[in-house]
Amino acid sequence: MTKIIAITNQKGGVGKTTTAITIAHGLSLRGRNVLLVDFDPQGQCATALGINPEPCVFNLLINHQAPALWVRESGRSNLCLIPSDRTTATAQAVINAEGRSFSAVLEAVKPLMRGYDFLIFDTAPSAGGLQERAIWAADLVLIPTATEFLSSDGLTQIMSTLTQLRETRNWKGKLLGVLPTFYDEQTKESKSSFGELQNKFEKSLLAPIHRATILRECAAEGITVFEKDSASRASKEYEKLVTILLKKI
Known about the structure:
Layout: E1 3-7, H1 16-29, E2 34-38, H2 44-48, H3 56-62, E3 72-76, E4 79-82, H4 87-98, H5 104-109, E5 118-122, H6 130-137, E6 140-146, H7 151-168, E7 174-181, H8 188-200, H9 213-221, H10 225-228, H11 233-248
Parallel strand pairs: 1-5, 1-6, 2-4, 2-5, 6-7
Antiparallel strand pairs: 3-4
């Protein structure tokens, strides 16, 4: 069965998009067919993979045409993308104005699910209707959170959103884990933040992704860390994350 994984947080700058594209590529390198769907109006998934942002998510959600029309090749085996751009914010406004059901995102992607082992959703760093519907459609949710003081608010908010969806919208999904990002054991703030995460999320806390210049370089070059340097620490850490994900599923 196809599994949908939403990568989400209500704070930006936590490595959410980097995590989404790296996991998607990592799964594809393991022979899984993966579709990455960018629900963030910034459209950075396309840019990070070296292709152009397009209004494909808008068309997927608003135009009643064959969903496969909006799928783009990533240039990598087993990995496709439904790119986004600023029109995704317009799609959210339309969905809210029309009072679409919480199943709107799931209904939109369901015709595509037969062709893929995984759908990976990159969501916007804010609540507004579309993020919640994307989470509701997901079987699993992964929450990247930077190991810094100001990231705790975003984590608290998204955990509250998951609780609300479970209690008021009968969400059946599960938390895959909390992923500490930008970890730097040389700084007191990062170590302190990681310690707090260990205390609060002992059972669901994943191994941290260290702060790494290579990850910023990859985004600028339109390649993933597996393509730039498969022997780097960042590659090994994300490789381990992919392994854990497959084991949990």
